[in-house]
Amino acid sequence: MGAKLDFEALYTRHAGAVRGYAMRRCDPETADDVVADVFLVAWRRREAMPEEPLPWLLGTARHVLANHARGQSRRGRLLARLAAEPSRVVTPAPAEGPDSARLQAALASLDERDRELLLLMAWEGLEPREAAQVLGLRPNTLAVRFHRARRRLSAALEAQKPDDGSERAPIVYVEIPQ
Question: Cα(58)–Cα(155) distance, rounded to whole angstroms?
Fold first, then answer.
C-alpha cells in the first residue's frame, strides 16, 4: 500500500508541472494524454525513479510528445496516400428478388471458408493478392481455393429450383479481378 500512496503523492506534487510543460507544446487534449502516459511510465519504472523526479518526468514528457508528433506525421502521410488512391466502386449484391434469395441460400450452404473468399473477391472487390493477404494465404493457394469455391457455388445454385417454376437456374458468373 505504501507504493500506491507514494505514487499518489508524486502525482499530486508533479502532475500540474508535467501538464503545464505539455500545454506549452500541444493542445489540451493531447496534454492530458501526455500526463497520463508520463505517469504510466513513472508507475512502471517507480523503482528506478531518481531522488528528484521532476526533471525525469519532464524528460519523459518530452519523449512522449516526440512519439506523439511522429504518430501524427505518420497519420498525415497515410491520409494523403489514401486521398490520392482511387476508390473502388463495388456494386453490392441485389437486396431483393428471387435471384438474390437463391444466391443467398446458395452462399449459406457453402462452408465459411468458401463463403468468405467469394464475398471478399466478388462483393468487396478485392484483388486476388489483397484477398490472399486478408485470409493469410499465398496468392496461388487463393487462386485454387477461389476456383473450387466458384464451382461449389455454381453447384449449389444448380441444385436449387428457381422460384418462377422454370427448369434451369440462371448462371452466376464471378470473375477474378486482374
Answer: 67
